[in-house]
Amino acid sequence: MFELLFFSLLNGVVTGLLLFMLASGLTLIFSMMGVLNFAHASFYMLGAYFAYTISTYVGFWPGLILAPILVGLVGAVVERYGLRHVHRWGHVAELIFTFGLAFLIEEVVQFIWGKDTKAYQEPEVLQFALFNFFGQDFPAYKAFMLLISISIFVVLLLILTKSRIGLIIQAAITHPNMTAMLGHNVPLVFMGVFGVGAALAGVAGVIAGPALGTFPGMAVVLGPIVFVIVVVGGLGSLVGAFVASLLIGLLQTFAIALDYSVNDLLMLFNITTDADSALRDLWTLSLPQIAPLLPYLLLVLILIFRPTGLFGKRET
Amino acid sequence: MTIKSTFVAGAVFATMSAFSVQAADVVKIGFIDPLSGPFASTGTNGLAQYQFAAEELVNKKGGILDGVKFEIVPYDNKISPKESLVQLKRAIGEDVHYIVQGNSSGVANALTDAIKKHNRRNPDSRVLFLNYSAVDPALTNEKCNYWHFRFDANADIKMNALTEVIKVRDDIKKVYLIGQDYSFGKAVAKAAVTFLKQKRPDITIVGNELHPIGKVKDFTPYATKIRASGADAVITGNWGADMVGLGKAIGDTGLDIPIYTYYAANDGITKTIGEGGKDKIRLVHEGPVNPPSTPEYSAYHTAFKAKFPEKDVSQFRIANVIGMLAAAMEKAGSTKPIDVAAQLEGMEFTTLHGENVVMRAEDHQLIQPIHVSVHTNEGITFDSDNSGYGMKTEMSVAAADTALPTTCKMKRPK
Predict the structure, then answer these.
(1) Torsion angle, CA of A176/A181/A183/A187, rounded to 10 degrees?
(2) Cβ pair A211:B248 closer than 8 A
(3) CATH code of A71's domain
(4) pLDDT at B18
């Protein structure tokens, strides 16, 4: 049991931090521009595919640097020449624009790279077990993923709280018009944040591609969960996104690991259930079965009881 | 007015006769499977194999019955049963009398019902349904019908063969079942529980888990659970990205136990699993690829790779569909579905692998030898995904030993 808990904790943190890399960009974009960017997870997918192609020529490490830069450029171009024009027609138009963009990117990816899963592999230096605990390996690559995500969190936090750019971004989040009046180029800030947000999603893709698979459905699998994190953590709050990512990561991992059913819960209260009853499907419902549903349940509860999210200052 | 309608009638007659001439020279085979959307890669690979089989096994040899050629007509069903019925109507309208389909038993169930109805109402333009991959046991049991023929072993037969292999492995004491949460995943789990209980009552099933299909982003928590359960073997019906994710995650935990699968090869899966799955992943399938069986098959495989270097002969049964259809037409001396069906029923056939198979008359289920192969890069002549890795046959179960009783009560046309 201890083995299961220990590894679930590790896995949960790895998943959570990976989600954070996506959520950090999304929450900044969402809070600054009011755009619910449906295409955000598509940038994550682009990161993985770019890195895959680069890795076939020059290996994994150049891909880790180049792919996010490319994705960031794509993101900046999308903001500059797409979103900024659509912005005129209001938030609904922007929403539909990013929605369409997500489909477009998925189709383009399938067109260029095909529909098969790509053999994008971890670099060989990281293909070993970092440690062995109760006979179970912990891959070094997972530790590398942890390291990258934590460093990104620290760097982002420092930039946002300690640097001048961070101050302008924070100002633009809460008072975009006032910031523009003070002579700052708010559209440029928007473009930069969108680009950096896309690049962060790209980094997530680069390091998640080898571990979670590089295939055309990878954006769809991860997309909705990132929105949950942004709402749960609170708009524009990097710390909120961090905490919510870890929360969701751990919630999902532990829900799969722990085999408890409704029956066990009722047993706690000394209620016995009838195995032949018409409701037996409900009683045999186990935690792993409802695991995928839990984050969305959390989303609904948060929206009802704390609409600002855990750390947000503004209502969603 | 009368002159005009005579003209029209004449024109119609002329067109019709033109069509019937063409119809006599070409047998159109309608391929209804996903050619777009998430499962398109399986569909397009299947289509390529059909086109190749028709060309290589029939058309190149001058056709059948003095020059009748096969033509594969693709119809995209987007893996939706509803869309499949629309495409079936279209195919029938385009004078197609042979339908091949394989991906998703949901689609196959819809097609077999629709074709049964169509044939009852239109005895003049009957259609045969040649199912090459949909493995829901119901299709040849309670839902069986005369116009449906299945060329793949159904899920129960495959599990029967798989458990034959587990039966002789005394080191396996604990088995973990994991699958996708839908009809096929459940059917696999149910069959595994039944057969293991029969053949190895001493085995404990330490986990019987279903996960959402196509929605799991990371299989590591499942792998951790499997590891913690102390399982000696895993059985899964997973396919596509779910298979890759599971295989990789189990490999990452350093767990060295056999993983028995239905679909863990080709379409990018073999290449992605690569070294991590070596000597672990096992596949139950028909048609032994490595070591090469016969010179005939080797020639077929080599010619296919020359034409489609990026694809694989991932579904060997497709060659059997085309081969047996051609043989049945030759025997019947006709390309009419009713004559061909009568020949296919109970037909004995020797495949390119030199294996003898029989289309069981009771339920139209092909009874064929089943093989269990291991994912490796040693002793591989024909690899998958051009990766150097491929499937090497470890054990074979003779055709007769795979046969399971059927509950089919077939109504035959008079």
Answers:
(1) 40
(2) yes
(3) 1.10.3470
(4) 44
